[in-house]
Write a structure and sequence with these properties.
Strand 9 and strand 10 form a beta hairpin. This protein has a single domain, classed as BirA Bifunctional Protein, domain 2 (2-Layer Sandwich), CATH 3.30.930.10. The strands form 2 sheets. The protein has a 7-stranded mixed sheet with strand order 1-2-6-10-9-8-7, with helices on both faces. By secondary structure, the chain is α+β, with helices and mostly antiparallel strands.
């Protein structure tokens, strides 16, 4: 497996790199990276319904759409991002637990009492610190996730706070 750790913190470049690796690199890959202040929006989301646009503009936070589904997430330098790309059989492609297991094993080795819960979350003491999403095309999967460790919680709450305007659409809503 090819392991990539690059040093760009530009969310546009990093999301594009994730997609490029998925679409063009035949070898299975693992990549680690960080994004400077950004909101990364899932493929099927209504961006305006998910973000606090005034806060985002005021703080110069970039908004980037990713290839995979799932909810909107806030990234900053207190968040580590990872992705796996893998070629395999269609029947084994969607497996959140399989791709989070290496992360869980490392954290357990560091003495962290974390758990895989729900469909795609990692928690410590019942509190979510990692979300994961996948995108599948033909016989290839892109699985990526976040590891929240020292993010600015005021910004996490401020960027994703939805204004009390009613949106009526078919877009996927984020889980708080």
């Amino acid at each position: 497996m090819l392991c990539i750790h690059h040093h760009s913190v530009d969310p546009n470049f990093n999301i594009a790199t994730d997609e490029y690796i998925f679409k063009h690199i035949k070898e299975d890959c693992f990549m680690l990276w960080q994004n400077d202040n950004a909101i990364i929006v899932g493929k099927h989301q209504n961006t305006l319904a998910e973000i606090n646009i005034d806060y985002v503009k005021q703080h110069g936070i970039k908004v980037v759409r990713r290839l995979s589904g799932g909810g909107a997430v806030y990234h900053d330098m207190g968040n580590l991002n990872y992705s796996f790309t893998r070629t395999g059989e269609n029947s084994e492609m969607v497996d959140f637990k399989k791709y989070t297991l290496p992360i869980l094993e490392v954290l357990q080795g560091l003495g962290v009492d974390e758990r895989f819960e729900g469909r795609n979350d990692l928690t410590i003491g019942g509190l979510k610190f990692s979300g994961n999403a996948e995108h599948i095309f033909k016989n290839k999967v892109l699985h990526h996730g976040t590891l929240l460790f020292t993010s600015e919680m005021k910004s996490v709450a401020g960027t994703l706070k939805i204004k009390p305007i009613k949106y009526s659409d078919k877009a996927v809503k984020s889980v708080e």
